[in-house]
Amino acid sequence: MVMDKEVCFGIVESIESLWERRELVDFTVQVENHEIKCHRFILGACSKFFSAMFRSGMKDSQNDFAVIEHVSRDIFVDILRALYTGSDVLTQDNVIAVWHASNLLQIDVMIRQCENKVVQWLTVENFENMSINAKLSDSKRVLETIFDFMLANFEKVRDTQTFLEMSPGRFLDFIESYKLVVGSEDLVLESILKWIEYSPEGFPNSSVTSFVAKSSSEMVVANFTTETSSKNTENELNASTSFETKILKTCVSNSSVGDSASDTSKADAKSVVPHIKQENKPKRLDMLTDLIKAARTCLASPGCLQWLYGNPLCESLPEVKDVLFKASMYHCSGQGHLLRASSHRIGSELEHFAVFSTHKEIKAYSMERDEVFQIPLCGALSAHSMRFLISENDIYTFRGNSSIYILRGYTWQTMFSLNNNAPNLINHDNFFWELNGQYGKINKFNLRNANETVSPFVDLPANVERVDLCLSWNKRILLFSNEYNNTNQINETIVHSLDVSLKTWTKLENMNESMAWAKSFRDDTTTYILQTTGEVWAVLERTPDVITFECLGKMWVKPKSILGAVIYERELIIFGNNDTNDLPDITKLSCPPDSFTKIRCYSYSDNIYSNVVFAALPKKYYPSPSK
Predict the structure, then answer these.
(1) Which CATH number fits domain 5-121: 3.30.1440.10, 3.30.710.10, 3.40.50.1820, 3.20.20.70?
(2) pLDDT at 226
(3) Which of 150, 151, 481, 599 could cross-link with 584 by S-S, CB 3.0 to 4.6 Å?
(4) CB-based burial of residue 57 (10 Å sphere; 0-12 exposed, 13-18 middle, 19+ buried)?
(5) What pLDDT, on a 0 to 100 scale, did the predictor assign at position 249?
(6) From CA 48, how far away is CA 104, in angstroms rounded?
(7) Residue 530 is inside which H or E element, if any?
(8) How confident is the model at residue 154 (pLDDT cuts 50, 70, 90)?
(9) What is the CA radius of gyration of the chain?
(10) What mean pLDDT comes out for the span 124-140?
């Protein structure tokens, strides 16, 4: 039905005249010993409370008189004025009282108006009071808005009672949220411990000596693009020390972390561990593992990881120690895998992009904004024949036996030259490895010292003439090479594993599938291989010496072009040059991973000629066009 505004205004004006002249009143409401004359049709039309009273034949209704308690005269008059005249009667002084009275009288239109104003007037100073009243009013809408407000203002609200009193499930959602705006993930991890140990009787509880507070002026925002951090971890790459020693060394060597954090020994870390109130301990302490898993631990500073690892609460939980260990290894590996624990939140200065080249251009696709941006061309290389690599979030490009270039900010810089044509060049443990079946060798390049190379590092296995797929997997490099019969048909795929530390090859079980043009992707725990024919394989380590490949199913039938794949915010995105037929179907996987719940194919308007890599790039270089 189309509403005529002129007619609507006319009706409101007529009703307003009834209010002003108090004509035809037929019902009296008593509030605070004051009698207020009203009209049944207004009360019954706007208030479910009065409507039910009038229909029920209650004594008050029959007597044309009702007493309302818990509502002041002024507030009731404000509500009537709004109902009769359509006036905006809400102020920051009366909105809460009007809100509660409207809930009591079940006046939906006023409830909505009050909620609109509460949301509009929300501030850091009043959000706690608004939260209390939203709970009293059972306003899910306002509570959700306050939740989002706290996400956007995390650093200002993280020490408040409302934050620390969040329920376990709600707090887990908060820590896990992509919308949480924070300058350093260290603050999130510290807040987890504060929430674990919080007790209302002791508020504010200061038993957590803040790791961040000790060095707030020098706090590290985990940014893997900085040259400093890559240099600082160089001596850690091949260390055989324990995790605790490795983290401590990394922490001390990182000049960006404050002395108070860097010099914290394991004993010192124990001294700042929160005391858990006994009545708080069972529920909250049981949440610690899930909360640490929910945080972006790979974005935390080495000093913060060391601080957590030395915490007795974390020491007592093997799963937490494993998460912290993997986060430390992420710092050292430089693989550039987009893990959930390394996924930047919406407020970060960095954003996740897929980088590829077309026939003439280099493109950066924002997975957050679903927009494509331009990256400057590397003058010495043709876009259509470029290859890309990622190490410590830096993007490298090369072509055949040309030089290798690195993207610094928004320009390309030369690093070093390749000696041979290198169709297979991978990053493993912060080194580039050149695999060339033609020469039967593997060369190793130090990314931090262009003049330092190890050539050759080790011979390829004798029967490997061509490498169809190579993976950096844990501390090994896996090689997949197809074996052909006399009619040039693929018999099977031969798989070898190189233990880099021992420089030894291990022959793995052959696969009856072709790995030509296959791509790999990862979640937080597992590496997967995706074939062009739709099969998905999980790489599994049964024992330290036994590596197997488990087929999880076949997601499509017709072969597809696959140039890269990544899991982003629980969605598997497959990049290639494909039509829209025979789309991937996750339900065809017999054991679908928990890390993604949906699948999407991405094809650019022009054909993609290069491989697709994934990196977190500074947002400032890729602003969205003004709309």
Answers:
(1) 3.30.710.10
(2) 32
(3) 599
(4) exposed
(5) 41
(6) 10
(7) strand 527-530
(8) very high
(9) 32
(10) 95
- Helix/strand/coil for 268: helix
Q: Which amino acid is at 82?
A: A
Q: Where are the domains of the chain?
A: 5-121, 183-333, 350-621
167-195 pLDDT, tens digit per residue, is: 999 999 999 999 999 999 999 999 999 99
Give the tens place of pLDDT for each residue, 42-62. 999 999 999 999 888 777 667
- In angstroms, the CA 313 to CA 307 distance is 11
Nearest to 468 by CA among 496, 431, 433: 496
Give me the helix-helix angle, 243-253 and 318-333, nearest 10°.
Answer: 50
The one-letter amino acid code at 462 reads A
Rounded to an integer, what distance in angstroms lies between the CA atom of residue 34 and that of residue 32? 5
Q: pLDDT over 90 for what percent of the chain?
A: 46
**Tokens linked to 193:** 């411990």
Pull the structure tokens for residue 284.
């909250």
Pick the CATH number of 350-621 from 3.40.50.1360, 3.40.50.300, 2.60.40.10, 2.120.10.80: 2.120.10.80
Residue 542: the pLDDT is: 82
Using the 8-state DSSP alphabet, how is residue 470 labeled? Answer: E
Asked whether 440 and 460 are in contact (CB, 8 A), the reply is: yes
pLDDT confidence of residue 282: 52
Predicted TM-score (pTM) of the model is 0.72
Sign of CA dihedral 481, 486, 488, 492: negative
